[in-house]
Amino acid sequence: MTMPLVTFFVLFGWGMLLRRKVGERLWRSLLRIGGTGIPSAALLAAGVQLAAMAGYATALAIGLALVDATGSRWPAVVVTGLAGLVHIPVAAGALPDRREPYADARRILRAAGATPAQARAATRTAGPFAFVGMGLIVGGLLAAFDA
Questions:
Q1: What are the tens digits of pLDDT across the range 103-119?
Q2: What's the Cα-to-Cα distance from 137 to each of 40, 71, 81, 103, rounded to whole Å?
């Protein structure tokens, strides 16, 4: 029980370190594609979180299938850990912070070129999905270490 949680907190620290860099790069290109509308920013934010969760869930399924094929749990741990390295900076970028809710996430979006209204809509839409994504990571690590 302790190894999955230790792994999650290491991944979470990694995500918090990279969330600004990943968020700015990701949103700079997405804002060019999505245009200047507020609904498009909100839909893109939800889409990014859902795509990251789908990618992680796919990697988890592959890792668990490797457990069946090899008879060892370590392929699942490695695959889900590597997928977590990719997913968690995306999810961490949409989490609310302690001060004003979503202030850091809005700052990241503003630095990428979003208007204040776009940043507000994107963070309020992506925030709940980010929490679900974090739960998916914890559940995936528990499943991988328990396999």
A1: 888 888 888 888 899 98
A2: 27, 22, 9, 24
